[in-house]
Amino acid sequence: MMRLIFFASADPATDPKPVWSAYHFANVASQAGLDAEVRLAGDAVRVAMDETELSEDLRAKIKRGAAAPFLVSL
What we know:
By secondary structure, the protein is an alpha/beta fold. The protein has one domain (4-73). Helices cover 39% and strands 19% of the residues. The chain contains two helices and three strands, in the order βαβαβ. It has a three-stranded parallel sheet with strand order 1-2-3, with helices on one face. Helix 1 (17-31) links the parallel strand 1 (4-8) and strand 2. The longest helix has 15 residues, at 17-31. It is globular, with a radius of gyration of 12 Å. The protein starts with a strand and ends with a strand.
């Protein structure tokens, strides 16, 4: 089986769009019945650590993704 992998490595404190997009498109893909995964590397894993309004929004999306049928890799 093939899997769509959405990869982000940008620091979410300076460039949140790649992390947000990865979760958005993985969610859309999984809702369409496709196997999807989000992979965060490098500074992108800071989304789990930083305490900013933006990181809180991204973490909310991540938590919703935890209930979705797609994988998240750090």
